[in-house]
Amino acid sequence: MPEVDFTVEVCGMAGDGTIAAGGLINEAMSLGGFSVLGFDSYPAEIRGFGRCVTNSRIGSNDIVALGEKTHALISLNDEQSRSRAPFLAEHSLVFFDSNPPAYVSEDNSLLSVLPPGEEVFGMPFGELAVGASGSSRGRNLTALGGFAAVTGTDPNLFRKVIRDKFKSKGEKVVNINVKSFDAGYQYALEKFSDRLKSVFPKIETGHDPQKVTLSGNQAIGMAAIDAGLKLYFGYPITPATPIMEYLAKYLPEHGGRVVQMEDEISSIGAVLGSFYAGARSMTATSGPGFALMTELITHGVMAEIPAVILDAQRGGPATGLPTKTEQSDLHAAVFGGPGDSARIVIAPTNVEECYHFVIRSFQLAEKYQTPVIVLTDFFLDNRVENRPFIRASEGQAASWNVFPDDAFKDRYQRYADTPSGISPRALPGMQGFNFTATGLEHTEKGSPDYSSENHAKMSEKRHRKIRYALKDLEKPAEFFVSDNLDVGVIGWGSTFGSVLEAVEKSRKNGFKVGALKITSLFPYHSETIKAFMAKSRRVLVPELNYEGQLANLIAHLDSKPVERLNFVTGAPIPPSAIQNRIEELLEVVA
Amino acid sequence: MSVKRFVIIGNGPAANHAAEALREKSSESKITMFSKDPFRSYRAHLLPDFIAGLIEEEDLYNRPYAHYNEMDITLRLGQRVVNVDFSKRNVILDHKEVVPFDGLIIATGGKPRIPELFQLFGDIMMTLKTPSDARLWIQKLSYVDSVLIIGGDLTSLSLTKALLKLGKRVKFILNEDAFWPVPLNEEIYRAVTGRLEQRGIEIVHCRRIRRITQLEENLLEVETDSELIEVGALGAFFGLVPDVGFLARTGLDIDRGVLVNEFLKTRFSNVYAAGDCAQVYHPVLRDYWISIGHENAIALGRIAASNLAGSHLEVQVEPENILEVGGVKVNTSWWTEF
Amino acid sequence: MKTPARILADQVNRIQKSGRFSPRSASLPTWCPGCGYFGIHQGLNDCISRLGLPLAEIVTVSGIGCAGRYPFFSNTYGLHTVHGRALPAATGVKLANPNLTVFAVGGDGDGLAIGGGHLPHIARRNIDVNYLLFDNSIYGLTKGQPSPSSPIGTKTKASPYGTVDKPLNATLMALSYGASFVARLFAGDPKGITEALIEGVRNPGFSFFHIYTTCVTFDKNFKTWTHLKEWTHALSQDYNPNDLRRAFNEVLNDDFSLGVIFKRDI
Hints:
The structure holds three protein chains of three kinds.
Chain A: E1 5-13, H1 18-31, E2 35-41, E3 51-59, E4 70-75, H2 78-81, E5 88-97, E6 104-105, E7 119-123, H3 125-133, H4 139-151, H5 155-166, H6 171-191, E8 211-215, H7 216-226, E9 231-234, H8 241-250, E10 257-260, H9 264-276, E11 281-285, H10 287-303, E12 307-313, H11 330-335, E13 344-346, H12 351-368, E14 371-377, H13 378-382, E15 383-388, E16 436-438, H14 452-468, E17 477-479, E18 485-491, H15 496-508, E19 513-517, E20 520-522, H16 526-534, E21 536-543, H17 549-554, E22 562-566, H18 575-589
Chain B: E1 5-9, H1 13-25, E2 30-35, H2 47-51, H3 65-71, E3 73-77, E4 81-85, E5 90-93, E6 97-100, E7 103-106, E8 110-112, H4 131-141, E9 146-151, H5 154-165, E10 169-174, H6 186-198, E11 202-203, E12 209-216, E13 219-224, E14 228-231, E15 233-236, E16 240-242, E17 258-260, E18 271-273, E19 278-282, E20 287-292, H7 294-308, E21 322-325, E22 328-332
Parallel strand pairs in B: 1-2, 1-7, 2-3, 7-18, 9-10, 9-15, 10-11, 17-19, 20-22
Antiparallel strand pairs in B: 4-5, 5-6, 8-16, 12-13, 13-14, 19-20, 21-22
Helix pairs in contact in B: 1-7
Chain C: H1 4-18, H2 37-51, E1 58-62, E2 77-80, H3 86-96, E3 101-107, H4 108-114, H5 119-125, E4 130-135, E5 138-139, E6 145-146, H6 170-176, E7 181-186, H7 190-202, E8 207-212, H8 225-231, E9 233-234, H9 244-253, E10 257-263
Helix pairs in contact in C: 2-7
């Protein structure tokens, strides 16, 4: 079978069914056995009235990054789709409505901005939908029918996912929607009979039943539920809100509760209060909200109270670029707040890791009694992947709380110094262990104490504990690493997929290039990172931020300078940009 | 002054040369070309070679897409102009887009002519005008091994050569209707049929075709006044006619083609027609003539563009080069090649 | 053989084990001698004792300020958070484990200034937290700056020419925010505090206790013992705390009537 690597975009206005159509493409292709990575973006400020774009990259091999060029554009609104024209590959397929409700001027037409090589497929989306269902609402489905016919996709894949999507609304709705799809499919088969392609051949192995199509947001929400989350406190903020909305819908049936708080300060305050009282709780926010939380995060560090905070990063500083993606909260996550306030910071790089890392974050928080920050970003949260996905068992999500031994009843020292720095933690309700958790510097017993000896001792104890946490934190993963590399690329977060694809391509070009994925950002495994840097003649750190925040964190580990590749475009880093930089560096190396 | 917007309808030799000449003369203007067909500028005379497998499809095309970018010409393929509003000076496309123009060149070329008698069988008869037609022939020829050609023009003869090369059996009806644009006389008939028979082609002598029946997907029955023929496919070649139907209700003067003066201008200012779709006035003949063929198209395209850009060039054709066929005067460059 | 002394010792031991012995912690309060907070401390401790609440099932949550230190002087579980954030933390504690009795304590700076945004929301969510606002109209821990409840003209080192901002009325605010239980009390009347707290703890929702108190060190003019004793008085005999309109009237007309101002009918 020839290798498939095809990117399709659906673009329309809110209300056109754009996101639904994109979702159906992801599901259908996943069902067909392809690897899918999708990303919905809302370039407009106000999503409710603006442009919607879905981007799906479909491949026969694993897809780890977003496509850079679009091979097919399904336009449900030509005026909006004009903005997508620059992203079209040569000879792409463009599906558009050939009978829009009104005449359009050249200045608003999609076709007037297409390069000459694009193949246009005009179909009366609305008319076909009316013919099939009596309403033009199904025009996104007739468009999908055209797409399936022209690209040679098995129509049964789409029929199945359309049925699944609408089955809760009854057989009648299901049939209407399948009919709309079929109307588009038949029309295109006949109308474009001499231009049909076979982009998506049938994959004999078919669908891997363990592959689930999931967004980062859904994975995070599912993880929280599977971890037995009892309370979610949050405040609406783009792009973290979908996590709150997911949990608001599903948490109650699992015995939990979502409380929309008055701000991010109260959200983290309530999370600390809940964990203090023994319940798993979390909050999710983005940069501006995270900034508000920093004082209480350091309170968690000082008072040794667990907390789980998910920071879905967006463009900053300040209000910045709410609907754009960036990795510029790393410094804030690791260092933000008053004092020496070391905490745990982890960052998943794909949807599957979003799930496992969120579950792990509760356990780390419990065991190390400190806030754990999970760093994601808009691109990771809103992306859809279909990867083999196995949910954690209850045991895998079990509590890691360290309770005091009964022997210490009535002589309990909440902040007792131990070799690991972990002090067994009592919960309110436990008889004989009453203590006061405090953000003041305190003795092992928990009484305020500002003496120099005590502050030195307790600061060391808290940092020892964080260092000790390394043994429970995932080690950096090496990809294609040999004893010596010409270029070693270090990536984190949502950017790592682009790193991996760039490195693979460079290797296919015959270059000795390897990659290192860092998911534990604080504390980090300096020995592993150091070793990787030592065996790389050049070290490259691509990041979605201006300052090179990961590079700043690890550059000191090796004597040679770290090469930085920084993007602040608000969009994911294209793999080709990393590949180009790798190959530029190779020229210098050679 | 604002940038001039020029629109060219068509993507054949006349249209492309008009666009290029316009760009030479007017570097600042916006030039947009529309073609109802979804393919680039191609060499029509190579289509039979493509069918015969002598060349790849890519070899048909003579202008890369980059060419249009370099020339800053917007080429819009697969987009059909369905109307022109000369009062508002807009071109209207099939998908309801309205494109304004300051100057317009109509160079839509010709489309396969199907005589009234045969229009009933339009679905069954295959023609050969575009790469898409060629692809259909290639598809068809993978199922059938006999073809009946009704024709006599250069395309039908080139296709026949290609069919022979592919080892197909060819029957040929040299039809008066098909033999266009020159009159078919006894002498030519004998010369042509003789040459065809030499190549192993079976000539069907008949006056008219009575009935064509599709027996199966790839089996046709053709009943002439003399015999009953079974073949796999039927190619019909009756020459080309100007493709100007979409202009019928626009107020433009149309006879067979768009009527233009010797400067290729229509009755509307800054609106010109060139190539196979135009009917050009000849001041000596005091009559209109139709242009046929590649070389004519290029020449007319360039003249129309120059005049739209402000020149005053006259089409120069010696009256003796213009033939009259069935009441229509034509000038053909390629007929002489036959 | 059981001697009376042995029986007594057993009883003490049993009471100690039950956690009902004394809500006071071993550490003595660090407040200034004569501080009104001692009276509040006594009032709350007596409430806990009288209700017989197990100390291990009580959490006392505070922010920052002189009142913020309260949890250290109580033998319950304590959560001493940052400035202004006692109420969100108390919300988390209560929702996490509804079996706990939760007291939130704090001063007027903590609760009306930096933490003022949380009061409306805990009130409208009606979280079962008992919030004691120690209102002495001054920042004591930072050595005497004006607070949101200082009267106009208050002179401090930070306001040498007198303050110009209008003071907030915490009781009125709590009523406006829809608190389901509102009491106004005086640190000089620990018994009154205990009575109101007992009633408020039983209220299965947010209970607000606005407690007038003194800062003997930094306020020599306004909320002094002399003034508060002179100004405060009990609500009239026929006062009905279930009538919200009447509660508003009462608070608008009289700043110093003490007792349960409002109690939502359940």
